[in-house]
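Retro notes (design track)

What went well: tokenization of the new backbones is finally stable.
What didn't: we kept losing track of which sequence belonged to which structure.
Fix going forward: every design gets posted as structure first, then sequence, in one message. First example under the new rule, 179 residues:
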């Protein structure tokens, strides 16, 4: 077991006012996720380009949307492509409209492939992160790619006393830098 793994089998988590138990886990190492200009999405195997001085606005990363009985914890993200990547939790609808919560800019110098930028982000079904890319070069066309790393957990309904004596909050919303 990796020492950076945040949860263990048997742990009880509270998510969305309900309690779940961690039933199993596996390391999540996805191949490169790139921008697909025809689908306006970030997808595994895509390799769209971004012209100098332009940007790719926030789009959902569908590969990081777990199934209903799963949750994901990203512990690192590597990036390739000169420019700025911005990772946000999913948009939320408020009384005044839609808002996204930015995790901060990730640049190639900070997080090349194989030396991922350390983060912690919790992802549940229908709450995948969004990514924005800005090509801040003046002459280069860039192929932006990300390499997420973390853990995917299978969860089951907790069948014990409520509230359980020990549990961990699984918080959706916001991204923490742990580096």
């Amino acid at each position: 077991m990796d020492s950076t793994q945040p949860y263990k089998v048997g742990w009880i988590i509270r998510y969305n006012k309900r309690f779940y138990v961690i039933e199993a886990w596996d390391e999540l190492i996805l191949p490169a996720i790139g921008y697909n200009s025809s689908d306006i999405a970030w997808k595994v195997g895509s390799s769209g380009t971004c012209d100098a001085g332009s940007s790719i606005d926030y789009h959902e990363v569908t590969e990081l949307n777990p199934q209903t009985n799963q949750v994901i914890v990203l512990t690192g993200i590597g990036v390739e492509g000169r420019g700025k990547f911005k990772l946000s939790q999913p948009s939320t609808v408020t009384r005044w409209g839609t808002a996204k919560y930015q995790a901060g800019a990730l640049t190639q110098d900070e997080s090349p492939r194989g030396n991922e930028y350390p983060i912690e982000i919790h992802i549940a079904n229908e709450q995948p992160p969004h990514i924005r890319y800005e090509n801040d070069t003046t002459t280069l066309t860039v192929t932006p790619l990300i390499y997420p790393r973390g853990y995917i957990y299978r969860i089951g309904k907790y069948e014990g006393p409520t509230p359980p004596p020990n549990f961990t909050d699984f918080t959706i919303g916001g991204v923490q830098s742990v580096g």
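Added context from the reviewer: The chain has one domain: 12-177.
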